[in-house]
Design brief:
This protein has a single domain, classed as NAD(P)-binding Rossmann-like Domain (Rossmann fold), CATH 3.40.50.720. The chain is an alpha/beta fold. It is globular, with a radius of gyration of 17 Å. It has a seven-stranded parallel β-sheet with strand order 3-2-1-4-5-6-7, sandwiched between helices.
Length: about 240
Amino acid sequence: MSRRRVLLTGAAGMVGGILRHHWGDRYHLRLADLRPVFDPAPHEEPWPCDLTRREDCAAACQGMDTVVHLAADAGSEDFDGSLLPRNIIGPVYLLEAAAAALCRRVVLVSSIYAVRGYGPGQPITPDQPVFPQGIYGATKCWAEALARDFSARCRLSCLAVRLGRPTFDQAGDWDPDQPSYLISPRDTAQLFARCIEVPGIDFAIVHGSSQHRRMWLDLAATTALLGYVPQDGTALPRQPR
């Protein structure tokens, strides 16, 4: 059976590196980024790409089964110079290109910041109204809304992943009584693989967190939809180094 062909935008970033490492040769990866992607493997295809240019998005999506859209400004408050082109315009161009290229699915990275305004209390479910923290968080609400629109209007399967920071270390110095939305690298890789592979989804918002004793993001709907079962988190035993 041939590998799925997956376009990975922002491939030179932290999450791109995590996925490349943990997935191995599970997929044929087109690695799209303005920055250089080092040491590509035989199943990887470096692809210089500026996602604020429609023609670059169109070329990158050609021949792809799935688009995993990681590229974004990851947290500044520079709206005109960075958030507008990268987090507002870029996703529109990419979704247009994916629909025109007849890609099967687009997986967009949203963020805990789309709902972080609720603060740590009861775990937030995907069906609660958005409550962004800051302009950056508001741009992630925009990405979720775009995904829903393109799913309905273009019949393009779209998943928006509200991702926590992918730095959780099971052997690290963590307090199980502190609320957490962190996710481990291997849980990150599992979650995105499930987003790519689970069939029959028109649109969904899913939560990207490891399993913590005190959760920011409720995982029940994500587990039921995707079969995602975290292997790490503060609800599990600490591992020795």
